[in-house]
Write a structure and sequence with these properties.
Layout: E1 2-9, H1 13-22, E2 26-32, H2 38-46, E3 52-54, E4 73-80, H3 88-102, E5 108-112, H4 123-126, E6 134-136, H5 148-153, H6 156-165, E7 170-174, H7 176-185, H8 191-194, H9 198-211, E8 214-220, H10 230-241, E9 244-248, H11 254-266
Parallel strand pairs: 1-4, 1-5, 2-3, 2-4, 5-6, 7-8, 8-9
Helix pairs in contact: 7-10
């Protein structure tokens, strides 16, 4: 049995569901029960995908003296708090704290993150070891993706091409998961710590959008439809901040599939 650990941003949970749904090599799905898992298991339930819940500290350490077998694959999915993105250095600190906890329990750690404020670009080298490699999402050119939008578009070159297509018009690009948090206050995770009221948070965000020249929201079609009410959530967000809504094609799962297959190859599951 081989064990792959996925340490993930909640923004990429639909992509993880997609990979699980399509992979017949997976014999066991373990979801870390930490309060960030609820939407994820709802989606697994809706698709009839079996899983079990566990606390990270209750998972056994692997026996490193036994060779890794490719007769079955166990996938452990550990999602972290989305609010960590509020401060990239805190995100990096949390990811770097979790990796040593995960390492004894997995044969490989697959990070479902990008650069995320340029704080995770060296993570593979920082945690290089012979027992449990750490890999992060990269595009076809081997470049670490910038963020979840870049991943859905296929990488840095494709991301840059899309941004140029807006001809200088400030545009939020939203994936389905991004949209699920947008109207509820995606830009307000630090509200409690700051002591701002809802109105103060709204005014601050509105000023930031206007000062930055944002005029529209692009609804990116990714081909994944696990998250409900995407169009409504995007429209609510646009109405709230007086932005126009446009549709954007070009999203796909190619980058995530390629990275996942490479990770499986490292575990001797694929040639």
């Amino acid at each position: 049995m081989a064990v792959m650990g996925i340490l993930a941003c909640k923004m990429l949970q639909d992509e993880i569901v997609y990979l699980i749904q399509r992979d017949s090599d997976i014999s066991d799905v373990v979801v870390i029960e930490n309060g960030e898992h609820k939407e994820f298991i709802q989606k697994l339930n809706s698709l009839g995908i079996s899983y079990r819940l566990a606390q990270i500290e209750d998972l056994p350490d692997l026996n490193r003296d036994s060779p890794v077998s490719n007769d079955s694959l166990t996938l452990i999915v550990w999602q972290l708090d989305l609010g960590l993105h509020e401060t990239p250095k805190i995100l990096q600190k949390r990811v770097y704290e979790c990796i040593p906890i995960f390492t004894p329990k997995t044969d490989l750690i697959f990070l479902f993150y990008g650069l995320c404020g340029n704080v995770l670009g060296n993570v593979e080298q920082d945690f290089k070891n012979e027992f449990c490699p750490v890999v992060i999402l990269r595009d076809k050119d081997g470049i670490v993706i910038d963020d979840c939008i870049g991943g859905a578009l296929g990488g840095r070159a494709e991301y840059a091409k899309v941004l140029k297509s807006f001809n200088g018009v400030g545009t939020f690009i939203m994936t389905p998961m991004y949209a699920s948090y947008s109207a509820e206050g995606f830009f307000g995770f630090g509200q409690a710590a700051s002591g701002f009221t809802d109105q103060q948070m709204y005014e601050l965000n509105k000023y930031m959008f206007e000062a930055s020249g944002y005029k529209q929201v692009a609804c990116l079609e990714t081909g994944l439809h696990y998250t409900p009410n995407v169009e409504k959530n995007i429209q609510d967000f646009a109405d709230k901040y007086k932005l126009n809504v446009i549709q954007l094609n070009g999203g796909h799962q190619g980058l995530f599939e390629n990275c996942y297959h490479k990770a499986k190859k490292m575990l001797a599951f694929e040639k």
